[in-house]
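Ticket reopened. Same input as before:
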Amino acid sequence: MIELMPALTLLFAAAMIGSAFVAIKVKQISIAILAAGLVSLLASVMFLFFAAPDVAMTEAAIGSGLTTFLFFFVLGRVRGDKHD
Amino acid sequence: MIKRALVLLFLFALGTLFVELLLTYTPDTQLNQTGRYYAEHSAQDLGTVNITTAIIVTYRGLDTLGEVTVLFLTAAIVGVLLSRGDHKGKSLQRKLPQSGELLTTGSYLLVPLILLLGAYVFINGHLTPGGGFQGGAIIASAILLMLLTDPLRHFSHSIIAAVESISGLFFIGLGVLGIFYAGGFLDNRLLPLGELGSLFSAGVIPIIYSFIGLKVGAEFSSMLVNLSETEDT
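Engineering reply: fixed in the latest deploy. New output:
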């Protein structure tokens, strides 16, 4: 278990950076929002690895939950006028 | 061109800063003095299993009051900014596509469960990870799910405002009572500490954290409701 932790942490860090790049580069806004939410979700798992469950819960609830849905909500409102 | 060079320079400076941090990092072998005090004393002095809660609600209770105030100000400012021209918007019914069957049925199932989870998180703040802020955010996400399902649903502003103000009043009231009947402002030993690890223990911490949870949930909800009710001009 102890041996596994650094490798797992590195994997999650790499995944975080990867999804952050996806969030910046991708053309479709909805995929970008999902990727940004994924960064927060992975960050909350990382906080759990570092033995900070309280921070992990805040990150999961606000960062990956509320913010992602709020973005989608606003996206829906912005697109509502265009009839696409 | 200059802008690009500046960005690269900035990134390089940031990178050297982080590399410097990484190279000079040595993990602590033991807790520092403050941390050790909290770790050793919070269970017997305050009766909390979750040390983080003891720090947030009691040792650093004043900071938490400040945080709640900042959040309140944010919610108030969002409300003030968005309520302009609200009167015209109310008569206008927006035409929105029907939300899907999956979302509607799913929200009937999930909203009560999410609300229950939020309440569980802030009531058990002194026993398990989490607390008022996390529970409040979870409750607000249930409200957000309801808004996603039916964007025209009307939430009573007065109920949200009442929940918010009453919880704030009780939070500060319990803190002030602590000055007279316990060790100081926001001291949790107003009520008996009880048995370590049971639900009704740790003095007033569960009560204060529940009020914080309700307050945070009401503030987030008021922001979301205000955002959803504005008409684009």
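The mean pLDDT of chain A is 84. Helices of chain A lie at 4-25, 29-49, 53-79. Please confirm and we'll close it.
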